[in-house]
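Treating backbone geometry as a discrete language has practical consequences that deserve illustration. The sequence in question and its structure tokens are set out directly beneath this paragraph.
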Amino acid sequence: MLRIGSIVWGVRDVPQAIHFWCGALDYQPLRAPSPDWAILVPKHGPGPQMAITQVSSEAEDHQRHHLDLYAEDREREVERLIGLGARRAEWRYPPGADYVVLRDPDGNSFCVIEKGPQAFA
């Protein structure tokens, strides 16, 4: 049997990524981060851990992995994330899209998806 140990996220600026993702997800470092590595965990309750690792390359326009973040109020969360340093990605959305594509401060894309309160019950 397997289970996910960490979601590993490559960035150029580890301290900036720690600040952004801890604010975005209400996470905290598991222990003191090193200059090139950190493990982030939920402040309250269980959840997947996120490992931040330093890389030397730029994020690709069409990376093969990304996070889908479920939101009770998508637009409120998008504005909050932009306030933390995210930016809207150039994206061609299909009609009726229930998601917004953002980029973290390092250029990695992720989605904020409208799920409503039933997803959090």
Q: What stands out?
A: The first helix runs from residue 14 to 25. The chain is about 20% helix and 30% strand. Helices lie at 14-25, 74-84. The two ends are 28 Å apart (CA to CA).
